[in-house]
Design a protein that fits this description.
215 residues, alpha/beta, Rossmann fold, seven-stranded mixed sheet, 7 helices, globular
């Protein structure tokens, strides 16, 4: 577990920002969740086979309604306030096979080669060191196991990408989110083998990413 590599300052900043927005996070994202995200989440979780699955960045529990019943799922989040809301939602669903814990994606308390699938939706835009987080995800996944992501990232259209680059730092300071991450590149840098990258919006801002841990 790479504790010595984790930036305490950056990680604490992100945790505090998400703790602060937790009470109104769902309301903030309600329009885009109803129009787009919920369908993408449903489609993603239908492909998860498990049986041992890790969800990184549970947040307020937006994926909980889509968890398959036949998997053994562990979910983690950096923000205790977000996790409180997820646990409350979990009580409304009959998901006794789910365990939720407060944990940093950059320094996970799981053994090597433990999970069959790792899932994250709109998370690696806010992990302070995304490559470190993806390396940890790789570590805890068995050889041949899969990574499944929904992520928003830096646009492929250069004029918009430059605007996102300019706005990234202030946006991150206010919200804890980076809007100009190159997440597909980061997945490869972490050691994952890309299997499929699908654009879900124009300009490649939102993508569905599938990768495998080399055997």
């Amino acid at each position: 577990m790479p504790t010595e590599k984790v930036s305490y300052k950056e990680t604490t900043h992100t945790q505090h920002r998400y703790d602060w927005i937790a009470p109104f996070y769902n309301l903030m994202e309600w329009p885009v969740e109803k129009l787009l995200f919920q369908d993408w989440r449903s489609d993603l979780w239908q492909q998860v086979e498990g049986p041992k699955v890790l969800e990184i960045g549970v947040g307020t529990g937006k994926n909980i309604p889509y968890y398959p019943d036949d998997i053994d799922l562990s979910g983690i989040d950096l923000s205790p306030k977000m996790l409180e809301r997820a646990k409350s939602l979990l009580e409304k669903h009959d998901k006794s096979q789910v365990q939720l814990k407060e944990m940093d994606a950059q320094d996970m308390d799981y053994p090597d080669n433990h999970f069959d699938d790792v899932v994250a939706t709109f998370v690696f835009c806010s992990v302070p060191d995304p490559v470190l987080g993806l390396q940890e995800a790789l570590r805890v996944t068995r050889p041949g196991g899969r990574l499944r992501l929904l992520e928003h990232m830096r646009a492929e259209w250069s004029p918009l990408a430059l605007v996102m680059d300019r706005l990234d730092a202030p946006f991150h300071y206010l919200s804890g989110v980076h809007i100009a991450r190159k997440t597909v590149d980061n997945v490869e840098k972490a050691g994952w083998q890309l299997q499929k990258v699908q654009d879900l919006t124009n300009g490649g801002i939102v993508k569905k990413i599938e990768a495998i841990k080399p055997r």
